[in-house]
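Re: that chain you flagged

S.,

Sorry for the slow reply, it's been a week of failed gels. I finally had a moment to sit down with the sequence you sent. For the record, here it is as I used it:
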Amino acid sequence: MPLQIGDQAPAFEGVDQNGSPIKLSDFAGKKLVLYFYPKDNTPGCTATACNLRDNYEVLLKSGYAVVGVSSDSERKHQNFIKKYDLPFPLIADTDQKVHNLFGTWGEKQMFGRKYMGTIRTTFVIDEQGKIEEIVNKVKTDNHTSQILK
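Prediction finished late last night. Pasting the C-alpha coordinates below so you have them in one place:
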Protein backbone atom coordinates (compact mmCIF):
# COMPACT_ATOMS: atom_id res chain seq x y z
CA MET A 1 0.00 0.00 0.00
CA PRO A 2 1.53 3.33 -1.03
CA LEU A 3 2.44 5.93 1.58
CA GLN A 4 -0.07 8.70 2.06
CA ILE A 5 -0.16 12.17 3.60
CA GLY A 6 -0.53 11.78 7.37
CA ASP A 7 1.34 8.45 7.50
CA GLN A 8 4.39 8.08 9.70
CA ALA A 9 7.44 8.23 7.46
CA PRO A 10 9.40 4.96 7.33
CA ALA A 11 12.37 4.95 9.71
CA PHE A 12 14.99 4.84 6.96
CA GLU A 13 18.73 4.54 7.37
CA GLY A 14 21.30 4.89 4.63
CA VAL A 15 24.74 6.31 3.98
CA ASP A 16 25.55 9.66 2.47
CA GLN A 17 28.19 10.56 -0.11
CA ASN A 18 30.92 10.22 2.55
CA GLY A 19 29.76 6.86 3.88
CA SER A 20 28.31 8.49 7.00
CA PRO A 21 25.03 7.09 8.33
CA ILE A 22 21.96 9.23 7.80
CA LYS A 23 18.55 8.33 9.19
CA LEU A 24 15.11 9.78 9.77
CA SER A 25 15.71 10.20 13.51
CA ASP A 26 18.57 12.62 12.71
CA PHE A 27 15.86 15.10 11.70
CA ALA A 28 13.56 14.80 14.73
CA GLY A 29 12.10 18.22 15.47
CA LYS A 30 12.89 19.49 11.94
CA LYS A 31 11.03 19.41 8.66
CA LEU A 32 12.68 17.25 6.03
CA VAL A 33 12.51 17.39 2.24
CA LEU A 34 13.44 13.85 1.17
CA TYR A 35 13.62 13.77 -2.59
CA PHE A 36 14.15 10.66 -4.70
CA TYR A 37 15.68 11.12 -8.13
CA PRO A 38 16.88 8.70 -10.83
CA LYS A 39 20.52 9.57 -11.56
CA ASP A 40 23.28 12.08 -10.88
CA ASN A 41 24.36 14.31 -13.78
CA THR A 42 21.26 13.80 -15.91
CA PRO A 43 19.36 16.88 -17.13
CA GLY A 44 16.21 16.61 -14.98
CA CYS A 45 18.03 15.46 -11.85
CA THR A 46 20.63 18.21 -12.21
CA ALA A 47 17.87 20.81 -12.67
CA THR A 48 16.14 19.62 -9.49
CA ALA A 49 19.34 19.57 -7.42
CA CYS A 50 20.36 23.02 -8.65
CA ASN A 51 16.89 24.46 -7.97
CA LEU A 52 17.06 23.15 -4.40
CA ARG A 53 20.64 24.46 -4.10
CA ASP A 54 19.67 27.91 -5.38
CA ASN A 55 16.81 28.08 -2.88
CA TYR A 56 18.58 26.29 -0.02
CA GLU A 57 18.76 29.35 2.25
CA VAL A 58 15.02 29.96 1.79
CA LEU A 59 14.33 26.31 2.63
CA LEU A 60 16.55 26.49 5.73
CA LYS A 61 14.87 29.71 6.90
CA SER A 62 11.51 27.96 6.43
CA GLY A 63 12.71 25.18 8.74
CA TYR A 64 13.51 22.49 6.16
CA ALA A 65 16.49 20.16 5.89
CA VAL A 66 17.07 18.66 2.43
CA VAL A 67 18.30 15.16 1.58
CA GLY A 68 18.46 13.59 -1.88
CA VAL A 69 18.26 9.86 -2.54
CA SER A 70 19.30 7.91 -5.63
CA SER A 71 20.78 4.50 -6.30
CA ASP A 72 24.08 6.05 -7.41
CA SER A 73 27.28 5.25 -5.49
CA GLU A 74 28.95 7.41 -2.86
CA ARG A 75 31.66 8.32 -5.38
CA LYS A 76 29.14 9.45 -8.02
CA HIS A 77 27.39 11.53 -5.35
CA GLN A 78 30.70 13.12 -4.31
CA ASN A 79 31.37 14.13 -7.91
CA PHE A 80 27.81 15.44 -8.39
CA ILE A 81 27.99 17.50 -5.19
CA LYS A 82 31.39 18.92 -6.11
CA LYS A 83 30.43 19.71 -9.72
CA TYR A 84 27.24 21.60 -8.74
CA ASP A 85 28.26 22.82 -5.26
CA LEU A 86 25.33 21.11 -3.57
CA PRO A 87 24.98 22.07 0.12
CA PHE A 88 22.90 19.05 1.21
CA PRO A 89 23.67 15.33 1.59
CA LEU A 90 22.79 12.64 -0.92
CA ILE A 91 22.02 9.10 0.18
CA ALA A 92 23.77 6.40 -1.87
CA ASP A 93 20.94 3.85 -1.88
CA THR A 94 22.73 1.30 -4.06
CA ASP A 95 20.67 -1.61 -2.68
CA GLN A 96 17.37 0.34 -2.96
CA LYS A 97 16.45 -0.26 0.72
CA VAL A 98 15.34 3.35 1.25
CA HIS A 99 13.61 3.41 -2.13
CA ASN A 100 11.64 0.29 -1.24
CA LEU A 101 10.56 1.72 2.13
CA PHE A 102 9.09 4.74 0.35
CA GLY A 103 7.75 2.90 -2.71
CA THR A 104 9.94 4.85 -5.12
CA TRP A 105 11.59 1.89 -6.86
CA GLY A 106 9.51 0.40 -9.61
CA GLU A 107 9.01 -0.46 -13.24
CA LYS A 108 9.58 2.36 -15.70
CA GLN A 109 9.51 2.57 -19.46
CA MET A 110 11.63 4.52 -21.92
CA PHE A 111 11.61 4.14 -25.70
CA GLY A 112 9.43 1.04 -25.31
CA ARG A 113 11.94 -0.65 -23.02
CA LYS A 114 10.85 -1.60 -19.49
CA TYR A 115 13.30 -1.48 -16.62
CA MET A 116 13.44 -0.98 -12.85
CA GLY A 117 14.38 2.45 -11.56
CA THR A 118 13.61 5.42 -9.34
CA ILE A 119 10.16 6.92 -9.52
CA ARG A 120 10.90 10.64 -9.05
CA THR A 121 9.05 11.61 -5.86
CA THR A 122 9.51 14.08 -3.01
CA PHE A 123 8.29 13.55 0.54
CA VAL A 124 7.94 16.51 2.90
CA ILE A 125 8.14 15.14 6.44
CA ASP A 126 7.11 17.21 9.46
CA GLU A 127 8.85 17.65 12.80
CA GLN A 128 7.12 14.57 14.24
CA GLY A 129 8.12 12.33 11.33
CA LYS A 130 4.72 12.36 9.60
CA ILE A 131 4.37 12.80 5.85
CA GLU A 132 3.04 16.30 5.27
CA GLU A 133 3.20 16.36 1.47
CA ILE A 134 3.99 13.99 -1.41
CA VAL A 135 5.04 15.50 -4.74
CA ASN A 136 4.63 12.92 -7.52
CA LYS A 137 4.87 15.29 -10.48
CA VAL A 138 8.15 17.05 -9.72
CA LYS A 139 8.82 20.26 -11.65
CA THR A 140 12.53 19.71 -12.05
CA ASP A 141 13.39 23.36 -12.72
CA ASN A 142 11.11 24.87 -10.05
CA HIS A 143 10.77 22.21 -7.38
CA THR A 144 11.19 24.57 -4.43
CA SER A 145 7.91 26.31 -5.30
CA GLN A 146 6.13 22.95 -5.02
CA ILE A 147 7.59 22.43 -1.53
CA LEU A 148 6.96 25.94 -0.19
CA LYS A 149 3.63 26.52 -1.98
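What I noticed first: The longest helix spans residues 43-54.

Talk soon,
D.
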